From TrEMBL:
It holds the Pfam family MMR_HSR1. It comes from the Eukaryota. Residues 65-98, 582-606 are annotated as: Disordered. Residues 458-556 form the NOA1/YqeH-like C-terminal domain. GO terms for cellular component: mitochondrion. GO terms for molecular function: GTP binding; hydrolase activity. Keywords: Hydrolase. This is P-loop containing nucleoside triphosphate hydrolases superfamily protein. It comes from Theobroma cacao. Gene3D superfamilies: P-loop containing nucleotide triphosphate hydrolases. The keyword Hydrolase applies. PANTHER family: GENETIC INTERACTOR OF PROHIBITINS 3, MITOCHONDRIAL.
Length: 606
């Protein structure tokens, strides 16, 4: 057996001087007799700078494990009292570090929550990184490890050996170079660490302890101030769910403040006029055949209807493909000026953090600090992003606004993965007649109730992971009872169907003038949309869960699929797995029934 130990200079031994180098329990003659180990005199070893010494770190020389004694009850009560007092003093808010008085190291640079190291069941918990000395010991690896002994006399009680030997100054220089080669990474909370490395949150219920982000209180009052730095609002909207992710309340608030302060400014009074920069992100998810001019006209119209009366700039970007980021940065820098304040605002999972990281990469600033994950509500508090804007201009990432009318806010993490769009959308088209129904998973249903024409075209734009079904409307109630939570997921599981609430119907009267392209969309927030193509009029019924917003709008994408879907379920992994489980269950039931019939027949014979 070869024992290796670290070969360090005496200057590196200071952190080791406090370690216990002796046996914690004295040996008795009885113990020595049982273990056949000679007694050693308990003398304190002297550390010399000239000759190497072998220091042994061992456990008790006994075969019986001794339990750690529990402290007296009065100390336990005192400890509990300390823990409760520390948990009460934890900062539970979403203000982050937008205030200049808040230090940077107080909040998590990934999500903006206040950091704390006392309670892992509270938001912002983090584990303190190892000290620099310990980090250097890990970096140096095994090149400073030298053999201590090759003799087999060492017993199983010997756990570690450290050889103390003087080393030249080259060791210090090499370790300093190693430290310079590896720059320090920002310390993030445990939640951000889990999202970055595993793509999920271990305990999502912890976030419920935080209050809801109050945009009016934190950002709104600064935008409404008649004096102060110039304000620019980056209104980030998801291209694949424009109406569902569009922040209507923020748009109305900023538009009202802009109009009010602009009127005061024209009268010669003080007036800070905020500027809205509408950023439509994730445009790589839309079909490449979409006309940019048509899309810009469509976006401006939807934004006006959503409450944004005046838009200073409009940008279409894709942080993943690096589309349009450079021109966005140039406009923001010009509009903010040397002392302005830029606020990135948007719904949960709209892509604000990903956009800001792309902006930081574009200007060569600090990048990759903000946590990115396909999970709604990744950012928990306001994060001040440094090194992106020039001069004294400031950039803030704000928590995602909760949109109760979005379906994704009600889904579990696993269900959200099925709804989340990560690739370019592909159309799935049905040629359908009145009296038929199309389901998008167990989330949305379209009924063709009346039509002035024989047939019409229904194109589904949604995540490819969502299974579809087309059948007669008279059988729709059976779909809810027999297939929701199974072939039609999400919801995942039958119990989730009841948890999501009741279904409600909304009626829409639509008309079109062409068979070749879609005329109108019926979009459900957080799910997707039906594009309707017809040359006539029709009465449509849309069913979804109570509270989910459904809007009628001009068609976003006019074209449809070249090949039509057939009646029944679409081919998908969810449907195939559900069918396999159903077939297996039916075979087991048939087998049990057959065995039961055989037993009955045998009993009847006797």
């Amino acid at each position: 057996m070869i024992i290796r130990a670290r070969n360090l200079s005496p200057s590196k031994l200071k952190p080791l001087s406090s370690l216990s180098l002796f046996f914690t329990e004295p040996f008795t003659s009885t113990t020595a007799a049982k273990t056949s180990i000679p007694l050693l005199p308990m003398t304190k070893p002297q550390i010399s700078n000239k000759t190497p010494h072998l220091l042994f770190f061992t456990n008790h020389f006994t075969f019986q494990s001794t339990a750690t004694p529990s402290p007296p009850k009065k100390y336990q009560k005192h400890q509990q009292k300390q823990e409760s007092s520390s948990s009460k003093s934890l900062t539970l808010n979403r203000d982050g570090n937008y205030d200049d008085a808040t230090p940077h190291n107080v909040v998590c640079p990934g999500c903006g929550v206040h950091m704390q190291g006392s309670d892992p069941k509270h938001p912002g918990f983090f584990i303190k990184p190892p000290t620099k000395t310990k980090d250097l010991m890990l970096k140096t690896g095994s090149r400073y490890l030298v053999p201590v002994s090759t003799e087999p006399e060492f017993t199983v009680f010997l756990k570690k050996g450290v050889l103390l030997e003087e080393k030249g100054e080259s060791t210090d220089i090499e370790e300093e170079n190693l430290d310079k080669e590896m720059p320090e990474k920002p310390v993030v909370c445990a939640r951000c660490h889990s999202l970055r490395h595993y793509g999920k949150v271990r305990d999502p219920t912890v976030e419920n302890l935080l209050p809801e982000f109050d945009f009016d209180h934190t950002v709104g009052r600064r935008l409404g101030a008649v004096s102060g730095a110039r304000s620019v609002v980056l209104m980030v909207v998801d291209a694949s769910d424009f109406d569902g992710s569009f922040p209507r309340k923020v748009a109305k608030l900023v538009s009202d403040v802009t109009e009010e302060n602009y009127t005061a400014w024209k009268q010669g009074k003080s007036g800070n006029v905020p500027r809205i920069v509408l950023v439509v992100t994730k445009i790589d998810l839309l079909p490449s055949s979409l006309s940019p001019t048509r899309y810009e006209h469509w976006v401006r119209q939807r934004a006006r209807e959503g409450g944004a009366s005046k838009i200073a700039k409009l940008h279409f970007v894709s942080p993943v493909r690096d589309w349009g980021v450079k021109s966005l940065v140039e406009d923001v820098v010009e509009m903010a000026g040397p002392r302005g304040t830029v606020w990135a605002v948007g719904a949960q999972n709209a892509g604000k953090s990903t956009l800001i990281n792309a902006v930081g990469k574009c200007v060569g600033g600090k990048i990759g600090f903000l946590t990115e994950a396909p999970v709604p509500g990744t950012t928990l508090g306001i994060v001040r992003v440094e090194g992106v804007l020039p001069g004294q201009a400031k950039l803030f990432d704000t928590p995602g606004l909760l949109q109760p009318h979005q379906m994704t806010t009600r889904l579990t993490r696993e269900e959200q993965k099925l709804v989340y769009v990560s690739k370019e959308l592909k159309p799935r088209t049905y040629r359908i007649k009145a009296g038929h129904t199309v389901h998008i998973a167990g989330l949305m249903r379209l009924d063709i109730e009346e039509s002035s024409v024989e047939s019409l075209y229904v194109t589904v734009w949604a995540s490819p992971y969502l299974p579809l079904h087309m059948g007669r409307t008279e059988n729709a109630h059976r779909m809810l009872e027999d297939h929701f939570g199974r072939q039609l997921q999400p919801p995942i599981g039958e119990e989730r169907v009841e948890e999501l609430g009741s279904w409600v119907r909304k009626e829409f009267h639509v008309s079109g003038h062409s068979w070749d392209s879609s005329s109108v969309d019926l979009a459900a927030a957080g799910i997707g949309w039906f594009a309707i193509g017809l040359n006539g009029e029709a009465v449509l019924g849309v069913w979804t869960y109570d509270g989910v917003d459904v809007v009628l709008r001009n068609a976003l994408i006019p074209h449809r699929a070249q090949l039509f879907e057939e009646a029944g379920f679409t081919v998908s992994k969810i449907v195939s797995k559900a069918d396999q489980a159903l077939n297996k269950s039916q075979k087991q039931n048939e087998k049990k029934k057959k065995q039961s019939d055989q037993k009955t027949a045998i009993t009847a014979e006797f």
